[in-house]
User: Which sequence fits this backbone?
C-alpha cells in the first residue's frame, strides 16, 4: 500500500477515486502496475518508468538499453570484487605473511572503481553509460599499443611516412571510440583538458605511455600535413604558433573530421561551427 501511495504522488499510477476517497483500480491500472514492477525490478528509476509508460521522452527500447548498460557496469564491478575476494582468500590460506598481499589486492579493486567513477563528472548521464567501458579498461590494448609505437617514433620527422601513418591510426582509434555522438565527444574533450586533475593512477599511466609527448608529436604531424596545402612563402609568413597548432585547434580539427560523415544541419556540425567561431 505504501508503494501504491508513492506511485500516486509521483503521478506514476493514478487510479480513479470513489466518492469516499478510496482508490479504485481497473484492469488497465493493474496492467500498468505489473509493468512498473517489472521495470523497477530491472533497476529502472521511477522517473524513467513514468516517461516510458507515458511515452513522454524515452522509449521502452531506449530505457532497456540504458538499464542494460548500467547493469553490465555493475556486473563487471561485482566480478572484480568477487575476484579480489577470492584472491585474498587464497593468499590468506598461506598464512599471516600473505595478509598484506590480500589487502593490497582488495584496495587495488576499490581504487580502480573509484578512478572510473571519478571520470563520470565529464559526461552527461547518457554519454557516461556509453563511455564507462572505455575507462574500465583504460588504456585499452589498441590504445596502449598505438602510444607505445608513437613513443618509439618521438624525435622523427613529423612529415615522414611513419609519423603520418601514426597520425592516421590515432585518428582512427579516436573515431572508433567517440565518433557519432556529440555528447561523448564533448565529454572526452572535457576529460582530456582536465587531465591534470585525473586520479593519480591514471596520471601515472599518462606519464608511463608518454601520452602528452605523443599528442604533441601528433600535433606536429598534423601541422606538417596542413603545410602541403599552403604555399611555402605563405607558410613562412605565418607566426610560429600558427605553424604549430595549439591543442584547442587540434581538437577542433578532429571534431571537423568526425563531423564530415554527418549531415551539415546535424547537432555535431552546429557545435563544430560554434567552436570555430570561438577560436
Assistant:
Amino acid at each position: 500500500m505504501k508503494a501504491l501511495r508513492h506511485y500516486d504522488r509521483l503521478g506514476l499510477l493514478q487510479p480513479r477515486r470513489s466518492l469516499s476517497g478510496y482508490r479504485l483500480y481497473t484492469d488497465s491500472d493493474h496492467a500498468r502496475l505489473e509493468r512498473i514492477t517489472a521495470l523497477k525490478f530491472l533497476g529502472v528509476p521511477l522517473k524513467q518508468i513514468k516517461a516510458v509508460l507515458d511515452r513522454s521522452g524515452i522509449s521502452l527500447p531506449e530505457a532497456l538499453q540504458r538499464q542494460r548498460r548500467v547493469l553490465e557496469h555493475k556486473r563487471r564491478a561485482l566480478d572484480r570484487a568477487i575476484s579480489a575476494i577470492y584472491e585474498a582468500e587464497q593468499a590468506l590460506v598461506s598464512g599471516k605473511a600473505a595478509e598484506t598481499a590480500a589487502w593490497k589486492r582488495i584496495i587495488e579493486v576499490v581504487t580502480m572503481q573509484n578512478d572510473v567513477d571519478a571520470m563520470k563528472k565529464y559526461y552527461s548521464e547518457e554519454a557516461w553509460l556509453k563511455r564507462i567501458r572505455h575507462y574500465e579498461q583504460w588504456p585499452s590494448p589498441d590504445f596502449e599499443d598505438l602510444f607505445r609505437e608513437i613513443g618509439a617514433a618521438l624525435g622523427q620527422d613529423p612529415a615522414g611516412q611513419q609519423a603520418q601513418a601514426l597520425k592516421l591510426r590515432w585518428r582512427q582509434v579516436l573515431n572508433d571510440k567517440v565518433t557519432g555522438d556529440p555528447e561523448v565527444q564533448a565529454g572526452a574533450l572535457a576529460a582530456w583538458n582536465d587531465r591534470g586533475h585525473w586520479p593519480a593512477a591514471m596520471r601515472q599511466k599518462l606519464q608511463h605511455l608518454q601520452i602528452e609527448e605523443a599528442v604533441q608529436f601528433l600535433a606536429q604531424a598534423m601541422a606538417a600535413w596542413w603545410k602541403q596545402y599552403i604555399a611555402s612563402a605563405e607558410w613562412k609568413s605565418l607566426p610560429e604558433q600558427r605553424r604549430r597548432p595549439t591543442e584547442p585547434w587540434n581538437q577542433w580539427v578532429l571534431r571537423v573530421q568526425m563531423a564530415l560523415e554527418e549531415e551539415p544541419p546535424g547537432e555535431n556540425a552546429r557545435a563544430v561551427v560554434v567552436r570555430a567561431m570561438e577560436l
Summary: The CA atoms of residues 85 and 106 lie 7 Å apart.
